[in-house]
Amino acid sequence: MLCLALRRFGQKLVRRHMLKEYAADMGPDRRLTTLDLVALGVSCTVGVGIYILPGEVARDKAGPSIVICLLVAGLSSVLSGLCYAEFGVQVSYSGSSYLYSYVTLGELWAFITGWNLIIFFVAHTATVARAWTLAFDNLLGNQISQTLHESISPNVSQVLGEILGFIVVGLVLLLMELLILRSSWIFLVSKVVILVKLLTLSFVIIAGFIKGDLHNWKLTEEDYVKAGLNDTSSLGPLGYGGFVPFGFKGILRGAATCFYSFIGFTIIVTRVEEARNPQYSVPMGIVISLFICFLMYFGVSSALTLMVPYYQLQPGSTLPEAFLHVGWAHACYVVTFGFLCSLSISIFGFMFPIRNLIYMMTQDGLLFPVLARIQTGTDTPIVATVMLSIIAAIMAFFFRLTDLVDLMSVGALLAYSLLATCVLIIRYQPQRRTGGNEAEVQEENGPAAEKLTLQGLLFPGGSTPTPLSGQVVYVCSSLLVLLLTLLCLVLAQWPVLLSGDPVWISVVVVLLVLIIGITGVIWRQPQNSSPLYFKVPALPLLPLLTIFVNVCLMMQMTADTWALFGVWMLIGFAIYFSYGIQHSLVN
Predict the structure, then answer these.
(1) Within a 10 A sphere around the Cβ of 582, how many other Cβ atoms?
(2) pLDDT by residue (tens digit) across 353-380?
(3) Calpha distance 252→80 (Å, rounded)
């Protein structure tokens, strides 16, 4: 009885959706071109991060080597983008990695993915509100913060005075979202803002190379002494000068934070059904938008660290303030204006996918149906919008900007790792049926008709995937994810490995042998030969490399970030196991 109950419980966790169950409810007009998708991806990717992140990362994580951090984060994003592109052409329904996980890995992993994406979108809204306030206050010469402190501080704490400012901005952004998002000319506005943004950032890059000093990439202890920083024998948080003042660890830590810079490309996948030619537009939109964004981030970070020594960057400082350092006060206002335009359109782009995601999860029965209640006339899930706005306001009040960015990076890295696992699994599965639940189909036509042998494992008899070979890949992929996670945990102790400790080196060797062996088993299995306009190359190596890089970056996050992420996940598991598992649509 106990074994049967556990078996049924396990089947509930991995039950899957069939794609046709989504098709009936989704069918918007196909009006978006490749240019529209590129503009949408760039508008959501080159947003708050490019004005806030370079200063935060360069100041106490990487110094001038932030350009290397961006390169590492950009390569990781490209790997994840390729996985997204394959699913975008294979699953031509508006969705995200939540949908892809549901039709591939199963319900529990889909819920984890969706729940992570929710906290990502909420934290992004909080970050935009906080950055918008900083930029607008800087544009007015910090008059808002000074007035609030002078008028409110005698009766209320200074912190509460700042909170009231965030409340005002949050309400303004919420109203703008409700009024503008459904307008038919939103993509025209997006293109105009993209043009303003790119012109502004091009000005920053050119001005930075004109006013910059290459010596700021070769700082020594003498420069710290001249700047009035004493006790240079133990610089501590200042690093140790040069191009890489915080060492290799600083590059990894900075790359983990910089990963947030490239997250916005996923917005393209949420508009698959609106693309005129999704099989071509989605992969091209993802690749082109990531390339443009990398060039922008790379140029802006280089210009910033050339204009201002990294140790003189202040916490919470924005990109426009760098022009005050070089004496270009008028340029500061021009860049701030472009910053405000960028943030205003950025929050619009991210509000659509979170509403779509919550609606999908409530329709699937994984979240409470009240969250899908639609406001008449606007088709807006008003309850979900209000609740998430409140959560975003609380996060904006009580968490630092870097904490919010790290939280978004953790959620996105985990979601992207699950998506890479989906690509690895689905390519080796037999052709999907058009009806019935996936778990039931596999159970009826499962591996009972076949017998697993060592020879069949290494030398499959046919060139077409079978239920048995598909299940072998499913199990092997799960083992590989576990082994790669353990390998990343061990490699995080790289100073001990470099010391030559035989125990740690033996552990690494054993893990590598197991990973290579299991990868070889997957490689020997037959792939699904269904024609696709785009496929991830070098299977199974590229998805495994994506998982490895993403997990390595996750290991660089601080304990505070993991604690905050853990609390959010505990709330999610409580909702799923008390409500979602019983009310699931496929139950």
Answers:
(1) 11
(2) 677 788 888 888 888 888 777 655 555 6
(3) 18
